[in-house]
Each structure stands twice: as C-alpha cells, then as structure tokens.
Write a structure and sequence with these properties.
This protein is 51% helix and 13% strand. The protein has 325 residues and is of the alpha+beta class. The strands form 3 sheets. A 5-stranded mixed sheet has the order 2-4-7-6-5, with helices on both faces. It has a 3-stranded antiparallel sheet with strand order 8-9-10. A two-stranded antiparallel ribbon has the order 1-3. Strand 9 and strand 10 form a beta hairpin. The longest helix has 18 residues. The protein is globular, with a radius of gyration of 22 Å. The N terminus is likely disordered. It binds 2'-deoxycytidine-5'-triphosphate, magnesium ion and manganese (II) ion.
C-alpha cells in the first residue's frame, strides 16, 4: 500500500483509490453488482478529482459518492486501512466468493450453502443439490471464470456466424458486448441475429436450426436453463472452438427484430454503466430507453439505428469503442 508521497502521485487520492478498488473487486467476485457499481462510480469520481479528499463530508460532495462510501473514505484516510476490506479475508467470505463463481449461483444461494457448512465445490456436488447449470458451472469452473482473449471470442463468433450464414445467407449477425467495445478480454460471446423484413417468429426457427447444427459440430457443448424458459428469442449456453484443447466459454445468442436493430445494438454493446447513463438521459428528456427503442408516452420515437437514438437524445454519437463511462 503506497502513501500519497509514493510513485505515480498525480492523484492525491491514490491510497484511497487502491483500497476502494479492492472492495470493488471483492463485490464483483461475490456478484454483489450494486455495491460493485457503487464503488466503481466513487473510484471514477476520485480519479477525476485533483483535491485530496479526507473527510466523509468532502467525499459525499463528489458526484457518485454516497454516504456509506464517503464514510469509508474517511476511515481509509484516518486509519490507513478499511476494516470491511480486512473482514473479507475470513474463511466464510472466501467460501462465498468461491461459490458465487459457479455459473448460476448468486449471493443468496452461496450464503445459504456457506451457512449450511457447504464451502467447497465438492461439498456442493455432494450435499448442495446443485441444478444442472450449477453442475456444468462446477465442471468447467476455471474455464468459465476466466476471461477469454479477444482472438478466441472472434474465433467462436466466426463459427457461429458461418454456420448461421450456411442456413440463410441473408441473416445479419453482430458480435456485441465487450467484444464490440473493443475489449482485449471478453467474459463471454454475445451475438445478435436479425434479418431485414423478417418477423421474429421466422428467426426462432433459424435459432433452433443453428444451435442444433452447432451441437452436432461440438461447438455448442451445453444448453443452459434460460434457453428453456424464454419465448425462444434467446439462447444461453456454452461453446468452444473445434480444436482438441479448446476451452469452454459462455455464449449468448439473441434474436432481434429488424426495426429494433439500433436499440438492440446500443443496449447489447453496453457497458452496463454506459447504458444506465443513457437511460437516465432519456428520462431527463421525458423519454424511456430500452433494448427495443426510445419511447415517449409509450409511443416509439426511434429504434432503427444507433445514430437516430443519439440524435433524438440530443447528444453526439459515441462510437462503440468509447462506450465506457
Ligand atoms: N447489459 C446491461 N445490463 C445488464 C446486463 C447486460 O445493460 N444487467 C448489456 C450491456 C452489456 C451487454 O448487455 O454490455 C452484454 O452483457 P454481458 O453481461 O455479456 O457484458 P459484457 O459483454 O459487457 O462484458 P463481458 O466481457 O463480461 O461479457
Ligand atoms: Mg459479454
Ligand atoms: Mn453476455
């Protein structure tokens, strides 16, 4: 832990930022997304500021810093440490972190298991009554928890896109999420499928055919639960490249109506925080933004292109690579 006199001292809040980043990481690991986002915002705010923030009162005046984090900032500056962070080091918290790393396990389930003395992956298999998804999550725990390099996301996308085009060359496919933002590492592969002047009902047939063909080619290795309980416009599962040492990775495929492509591109590019700020902006303008379009009083304003949506919101277009707040 370096003091404010240390290296890279262009920001006087470096020590605070260090500790807050560890808290953010902890909440990300335990899938406590709201808290993780709270810390992310506070860190962004501190990074922008030039003045040294020492008290909770000063901290709470920064945009994006609530009272609870403000108090933690004061504790860090006053004591050089944060008790809450140190308490994340206890064995139960580590178990909780391990268990929330299983695909399909949230903080509530993990907590229940830990309380029942179920603390390892083997414990879950033996006594935790895991769902199918959770069993798959345990079997491929490391591969699914590791972000894949961009080239691997590109390779999996390629397999899906080529197979789809073999079914119907008129399909339009886009690889979304972190990949479209240009990230060097991707948590999963997100693909949307659409086609001009074609109804979603027709695309459902395409999705069924596509996943079947990918299963036969052993690109798709597992179907996960959500695949079975939606209206058939979304598929979630696990896929890998075809070479023998390829790793299992999460794949999401979504069907999008052609008229909604702009709104879908915007939504599924993210990131989640950028999306939140766009929705807030829409709200300020008396409108509502979601993955289907921009609406006013329930009436569609625009949805066909991303440019139209930025326009209607009165802000300059932001290329996908820059959509990280
Ligand atoms: N999304 C969102 N809010 C959520 C979940 C998703 O706005 N709660 C949007 C923004 C995301 C996109 O969907 O960028 C894809 O979701 P992912 O969970 O796949 O996230 P990313 O692709 O951004 O990151 P990762 O590399 O971890 O997959
Ligand atoms: Mg993704
Ligand atoms: Mn995804």
């Amino acid at each position: 832990m370096h003091a404010n006199t240390g290296e890279n001292d262009d920001n006087r809040n470096n020590e605070t930022i260090d500790i807050l980043t560890k808290m953010q990481k902890y909440y990300e690991d335990t899938e406590d997304n709201w808290r993780a986002i709270g810390y992310r915002k506070a860190i962004t705010s501190l990074k922008k500021g030039k003045t040294f923030i020492a008290t909770a009162e000063q901290a709470s005046k920064l945009p994006g810093v609530g009272t609870r984090i403000a108090e933690k900032i004061e504790e860090i500056v006053a004591t050089g440490r944060l008790q809450r962070l140190e308490s994340t080091d206890n064995p139960d918290d580590n178990a909780k972190r391990l268990l929330t790393g299983i695909y399909g396990v949230g903080p509530v389930q993990a907590q229940k298991w830990v309380q029942a003395g179920i603390k390892t992956l083997q414990d879950v298999l033996d006594r935790g009554k895991p769902t199918y998804d959770q069993k798959v999550g345990i079997k491929h725990y490391d591969e699914l928890n590791e972000k894949m390099p961009r080239w691997e996301a590109a390779a999996i996308s390629r397999l899906v896109i080529d197979e789809a085009r073999a079914i119907d060359p008129g399909l339009e496919l886009h690889t979304m999420g972190s990949f479209r933002r240009g990230a060097e590492k991707c948590g999963d592969v997100d693909i949307i499928i659409t086609k001009p002047n074609v109804q979603i009902t027709e695309l459902r047939g395409v999705l069924t055919k596509l996943t079947k063909r990918l299963r036969i080619r052993k690109v798709i290795t597992h179907d996960l639960a959500v695949a079975h309980n939606t209206d058939g416009s979304k598929w979630m599962g696990i896929a890998k490249r075809t070479d023998p040492d390829a790793k299992h990775r999460r794949l999401d495929i979504l069907l999008v109506p052609w008229q909604e492509l702009g709104a879908a591109l915007l939504y599924f590019t993210g990131n989640d925080i950028f999306n939140r700020s766009m929705r807030l902006l829409a709200k300020k303008r008396g409108m509502r933004l979601n993955q289907h379009g921009l609406f006013r009083d329930g009436e569609l304003v625009v949805s066909e292109t991303e440019e139209q949506i930025f326009d209607a919101l009165g802000v300059p277009f932001r290329p996908s690579h820059e959509r990280i707040p």
